[in-house]
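From the shared-data thread, chain only:
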Amino acid sequence: MQPIKRSKLRLFLGKNYYTLRKHMQWRLSKEKYADRQEKAIRSHLYFSHKTPLYRKLKNVDMWLQENKVINLNIAIKTLNGLVLYPGETLSYWKRIGNPTAKKGYVEGMQLSHGKFIANIGGGLCQLSNLIYWMTLHTPLTVTERNRHSYDVFPDVKRKQPFGSGATCVYNYVDLQIKNETEVPMQLCLDVGDTHLIGAWRGEEPHELTYEVYEKEHWITHEYWGGYLRNNLIHRKVYNLEGEIIDDEYVTENHAIMMYQPLLETGKSRKNEQRHRGVSVKEKLPGVNTC
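Structure, as tokens:
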């Protein structure tokens, strides 16, 4: 895995090919896609989470984040209250549709090849990240998810494991979630003053709870000169008595690091690794520590 430079023609042709292929998949698939939204909120909370709408980012104009909020408000209208009935699949892009200017979408902050750019509909990855993270804490099944190819920020104030999000690009980089349980589940979303807020809810009590965690983590120095960050995400499953009944594999991540992985002092590195529960040796095999 390494940065790949492609011509504008190659990017244009590739995007159109994969976009058409995804449309054909939607049309020909035997999957039943969720399409019913309900105003009434289901009584039982399964899992909720919120993420900040605004961050101070170096060399990123704040108007891009303000426009991102506009885009999020438009997108959640297609998803808030959506009920995922047993056997149904939620396709992120099938529900939202193409985020075009005609629908009111504006230029927002979008991550492209490790850099922030302005693009119509930019910022919707925050929504797909939130939905994916919440889904990992439910019995729903993620059937399609794409990892981020670049790791842009160091672990300063990171509260979730690296690689616990889901990137999205209309329409072929999709997030799809299937309800293989016997209970309908409702997706509730809201854009607050400071946070994007979400929850999965249902009509019956939740019998299981989940703890998503990073089981393994390592950084490799690649032959082309850069660094790759890698990890394994697992989740522990608990019953009503709080007993662990399973430890499930979730996904494996590999991302090109856009910052230097070495800390200023060996002491700082050891403190960071101790906090994360990973040894320095596990963290950086083959890379000298400072």
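The first helix runs from residue 8 to 28.
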